[in-house]
Each structure stands twice: as structure tokens, then as C-alpha cells.
Amino acid sequence: MIPEQRSARSSAWPAGSFLAGLAENDRAVMLAAGSPRSWRPRDLIIREGDTGTAAILLLRGHVRVLGSKADGNPTLLAVRVAGDLIGELAVLDGGPRSASVVAAAPASGRVTPAADFRRLLDEHPRLAEAVRRVVTAKLRMANRHRVDVGGDPVRVRIARLLVHMGEVYGRPVSDGILVDVPLSHSDLAELVAAAEPSVQRALAGLKRDGAVTVGYRRVVITDAGRLRIVATTIAP
User: Fold this and answer.
1) CA distance 176 to 183
2) 220 near 213, Cβ under 8 Å?
3) Are 184 and 194 in contact (CB under 8 A)?
4) How many Cβ atoms from other residues are within 10 Å of residue 30's Cβ?
5) Residue 164: which domain range?
6) Which of 24, 74, 194, 234 could lock 66 by a disulfide, CB 3.0 to 4.6 Å apart?
7) For 165-208, what is each residue's pLDDT tens digit?
8) Angle, to 10 degrees, between the axis of helix 154-169 and the axis of helix 196-208?
């Protein structure tokens, strides 16, 4: 089943994704906009610093959002999956791309030129409001990331990330909520700005507490209440 065919139902997309939050008519408008494009793993989709010439609606696969550290090396800022919108901020504010986006798996989507995207939002106020919510949520998470770098224990930061990922990309399975994004321990470490061994210890502790189970690129939230308690713990 191709992504456009499955899109008739909001439940076909991750619950917290941009497409899942749209009314059916608005979803149809977005899926008709722009032109189709596909990418191979490791293809550069967006380059940090470039002009925002288009917004991209991801329909298949997942991508890595990468920022540059002070030493010029990349760091993982976020992961986006099918149903997510990428590249919209630079299109809306006219500024340079704030991060690079690289395909982490075979991916496809629809690419809408900047002028067409802005016109689309002018013609469809509900879509404009939905995009505004997406931008606001991304900025809030970016602020949260900056706070995390400076402060809370790794265990709290990992719990907070998993709560967020479960809310946005979670899928019910027999033993809990599957975080339906394939993240390695290295990915998780970059997302919470911590050393990988520290992340491994934090995950092991959460597993012992019964909050999660962990496999290869797989995390299942088995006790969301317990995980949320850890995520909201205030460091002494």
C-alpha cells in the first residue's frame, strides 16, 4: 500500500504526526500539494544554512535532523517519521535552514515550493493553524533540549524523551506502547546530550523499575505512569 492510499484514515499515521492531526479534507489538500520525491538512506534532504525553498511532507520512512556543534561536527536533534512536516520554518520566516535533514531509511514525500506552500496556508486557515502548532511544538522541544543539556540527570532526560516519543509516535502493542521509531542507544545519547554508557545505564534502570523494555532499536513503554514520574523528577 502506497502512502497516499493509506492516508484516508488518520489512524494510518503516527498519532502525534502532522497528518494525523488534520481533518480529512485538509489531509487531502496536503497530500495533493507539491510533487513526489524519494530518497535513499543517507541522502541529504535539507542542508543547514541553505535558503528555505520548499516544505516537505514525509510519507514513508524516517529522517534524522542534524545540527552543527561548535566544533563543526553534527549532532542529532530530532527524528521525523511518516506524516511529519519538515523544512517549514525557513519557508515561513525566510531565514536560513536551521538544521540539516538526512534520510535514515528509504523515504518518500511530497515537496511543495515555498511560494506555493505559503499560498496554500493563506487559502486554508485550518492548515495554517495546524502548521503554527507544529512550529510551536518544535520550538518548545528545542528549548527543552537546551535546558536538558545543562541540567537534569540522564535518567530524567531519557524518561522525558521517551514520554514525548511515546505521545507523538507511540503505537499500542501487547505489552505497552511501542515507540515506533528505530532509535539506537547512540541516537538516544545524542538526543539527550549524554554519553552512550550513561544512557545504557539509565535504560537499564528504567527496565529494572518496570517502566520500559528495551531491544535492538526498540523501546516499549510498559508503565507510562512510572515513566512520567521519573520524567518529572526535579534534581536536588
Assistant:
1) 17
2) yes
3) no
4) 23
5) 151-231
6) 74
7) 898 888 899 999 999 888 889 999 988 888 999 999 999 999 99
8) 70
Domain contains 52: yes
Same structural domain, 13 and 118: yes
Domain total in the chain: 2
Q: What is the pLDDT of residues 85-144, one digit of tens each?
A: 999 999 999 999 999 999 998 999 999 999 999 999 999 999 999 999 999 888 877 766
CATH number at residue 165: 1.10.10.10
Residues 231 and 156: beta-carbon distance below 8 Å: yes
> 171 - beta bridge partners?
178
Output the DSSP codes for 68-128: E-TTS-EEEEEEEETT-EESHHHHHH--B-SSEEEESSSEEEEEEEHHHHHHHHHH-HHHH
- Residue 59 C-alpha cell reads as 510519507
Q: What backbone phi and psi angles, to 5 degrees, belong to 114?
A: -55, -50
Determine the Cα angle at 17 with ends 189 and 160, to 5°.
Answer: 35
